[in-house]
Amino acid sequence: MRWPALAGLLLASACHVRAPVTAGPSGGDASEALPPSAFPPEPTAAPNRSPRNARVLESILAEPGSPPTVHVVIDDPRFPPGTGPRLGIDEGHHDFHTLDGMFAPFADAARADGFRVIAHEAPFSAESLAALDILVIANALHERNDHRIGGEWTLPTPSAFTDDEIAALDAWIVAGGRLWLIADHMPFPGAAQALATRLGFGMSNGFAFAATEQGEVIPNSIQHTRDEGTIVSGHPITEGRGPSERADSVRSFTGQAFEVPDDAVVVLRMPSPAVSLVPATAWQFDEHTPRHDVSGWPVMAAREHGRGRIVVSGEAAMLSARYVEDQRGEWQPVGFQAAEAHDNLVLVLNTLRWLAG
């Protein structure tokens, strides 16, 4: 594939994202209404779900032209409603994914499993973190790279966190705190690098893709499977509490690959071959864009850290649910409600349950 074609294809996907899917009605900004066949008459189970005790339900919105809503139902939740661990989703660091935004379906899934979910807006300190059992950071940014306030997705990508915040987080985890650090493609890995380094991980500030044997980029989302070894067996995140909670096939939607310390357990990895493209400006690639081999590199890993636990993920969209508008003006699912995302929701719940202990 020629570089202009690759960049155009990826940009088309990136730029046609519409309103995030939430657990309740919200307006959309689509310019064209969907055909009647796109609107089911009542909530229906998404077609990707094999028999599970957790299901994704899709429904229509009252406003034609808006994407469907998504709601998660769990028949056998880990905790009774509202009694589980206190789970904070970071909103204090220019985060791209937030509780009421891109991560609303993630929060819906956590609440359905009994977790008490709140937005965490304060700087990280011993005092602010004491209010949480689990912290989720999803694509934090330095203000320089926050395009919502005039920033740019270009190099450099400074740390989203101060040195004092990183030290406070480290101490909190060692004392028993639980962190899920999610850093997607560039510029997000750069913003998370200082924190990741303190915790033993090495971010790759690029875009990770499967590739052909000749090194040509395959600009598609990636299917990770147990059979092909890109889902790693043996950890509670991939095994769950029993056969109905095994993660056998999950879909990721363009992120990064990263390096892990020796004591980390890899749960998802890149296929082989695979490459990471490292542009100076997000989504802009040409024949001069630096690249490096990331064949088999981790895209999700877990480790114990003192009395606490850490999970690092290199892709965020697979952990929530949203829709993008295609060239025909029709909504296409991206996330755990997508047809190919057979066990993405299972992966989310298994991860939260492992972090909870």
Give the biggest sheet: 7 strands, mixed
Helix-strand topology string: HEEEEHEHEHEHEEEHEEEEEEEEH
Strand residue content: 15-25%
Given helix and strand content, the structural type is: alpha+beta
Can you tell me the residue ranges where pLDDT is under 50 for at least 5 consecutive residues?
11-51
Rg over alpha carbons: 19 Å
Shape: globular
How far do the termini sit from each other? 46 Å
SSE diagram, text form:
Layout: H1 3-15, E1 44-45, E2 54-59, E3 69-74, E4 86-90, H2 104-112, E5 116-120, H3 126-129, E6 134-138, H4 163-174, E7 178-182, H5 188-198, E8 207-211, E9 217-218, E10 222-225, H6 236-239, E11 249-252, E12 265-269, E13 274-277, E14 291-293, E15 298-305, E16 308-313, E17 321-325, E18 331-335, H7 344-356
